[in-house]
Amino acid sequence: MIKWDGHSHTKFCKHGHPDELERYVDRAIELGFERYSVTEHPPLPEKLIDDERLMAELAMGFDELPAYFDYVRAYRNRYEGRIEVAVGLEFDYLHGNAAFTERLAEPWADVLEDSVMSVHYLPGRGGMRCIDYKPDDFRIHLLDYYGTMEKVVGEYFDHVEQAIEMASGLPGRRRIGHLGLIEKFRHELPPIEEEQIRGRLERLLPLLVRTGVGVDVNLAGLRVATCGKPYVPEWFIRACTEAGVDCVYGSDSHKPEQVGFGWDYYAKAVEC
Known about the structure:
By secondary structure, the protein is α/β, with parallel strands linked by helices.
């Protein structure tokens, strides 16, 4: 098994850290990683969310994309022979706007080595809403809109299923991002029934097998105080592995010190 971090960010992330990629990659080498995939947030449709300040923090602009790809490819060349630096993006599933994602990906199809597709947004009060912004924002714009956590979770996994279908058409190695992101604020919001989460994850397995889309085993939830658990449970990692679905560790690092976070959890799960 190659030691691979398949989900990471850079200074191009508007809610990340200004350190250069060198610090992230050096940390990966120090920890014995053989491959390091850089999967930055690409541009979003204008006014996706009706909050200008939040929109400014979510993703790079279209004018930054060429510089981003040049930046990562320069490090790939610089570190050749020491670690494989792969060029990728973390696409957003945009409900009802598949054309935007297709237009975004098409010019870079020959460059992209990794495509992570994540669900960060759901329809809510006043339009599209970010599910991982703040607990109060979730409560006002999503929980109050849908009425119960059960309905929010159901909507989220409906979108995840559609995101997997869409991810199957993206370039490179394709994965669905942080499946349990809907639980990010679980300590601040009404409880989510484990039976519902398990049932929806079990429903995803044949879809992942059919589409050939892998799973981003994202450990960022462990370091989030309002969550305190991985975004992908051990039992699901084992089920995916047995079914032949690729499960790739993801630190989701937004700071150099987060590279490698939670690797032991992943290694234990895939070896069981």
